[in-house]
Design brief:
3 domains; four-stranded antiparallel sheet; alpha+beta; Hat family dimerization domaincontaining protein-related
Length: 222
């Protein structure tokens, strides 16, 4: 049989993913490429076969009840990015510095952690347009940890560095009962050429043992 008389077989053309769809206002918020003939809906987390209908398949999916529900839920609920802090970013550093200043102000003026707890709950309302205050979570428990583990050791290092060049200084100690614990503050007074006469708290510790022998042993230890 002559090849010219053989009828041609119609080959069906498949529709591939068009990159322009990611910029289309109707699809750009939820569409992404999965494979050459498959699109991915980020709202529904489902695959869409486009090889037969192309763009029309996306339109049909966008009008489906499932997609409309998921899209509405995404728009009405807050994104998790509003609550999570990305590590090793300038925003994380700004939040850490803000919390340190927050606690330092509280300690310097002798305010209670209860007052800090109250202020921390309302600071985002006082400054609603700040992304830093919106993600600050510095209440009494965290503030106490920052005071004991960050500000306290740092202040001791500053006092010790000031004492090294001093020839004369005086140390005073006292004791006070707080519940079933006895507290021992150690205060130091010295002269600094730049700051003048300085009075600093060198250490403050608690001890349940209250006998004279125990107190004397502690003073020798410290």
């Amino acid at each position: 049989m002559d090849s010219l008389s053989t009828p041609l077989i119609n080959k069906k053309k498949f529709a591939g993913f068009n990159d322009k769809w990611t910029n289309d206002p109707s699809f750009k918020d939820w569409i992404e490429k999965k494979k050459d003939f498959t699109a991915m809906c980020k709202a529904c987390n489902s695959e869409i076969a486009i090889q037969y209908e192309g763009r029309r398949a996306l339109t049909v999916h966008a009008n489906s009840i499932k997609h409309k529900k998921m899209d509405l839920a995404k728009k009405t609920s807050q994104s998790m990015n509003n609550f999570l802090i990305k590590k090793h970013t300038s925003q994380e550093r700004s939040i850490i510095i803000s919390e340190l200043v927050f606690v330092y102000h509280n300690v310097k003026h002798g305010l209670s952690y209860n007052s800090l707890d109250c202020l921390a709950k309302n600071i985002s309302k006082l400054i609603p347009d700040s992304q830093i205050t919106a993600k600050m979570t510095c209440k009494r428990t965290k503030a106490a940890a920052i005071t004991r583990n960050v500000l306290g050791p740092y202040s001791q290092e500053k006092v010790i560095s000031d004492l090294k060049p001093c020839f004369y200084f005086s140390i005073a100690s006292d004791a006070s009962n707080v519940g079933n614990l006895k507290t021992f503050p150690y205060a130091v007074q010295y002269f600094n050429c730049n700051k003048g006469i300085c009075r600093k708290l060198l250490d403050f510790y608690e001890e349940a043992e209250e006998t004279s022998l125990d107190i004397n042993a502690l003073k020798k230890y410290y």
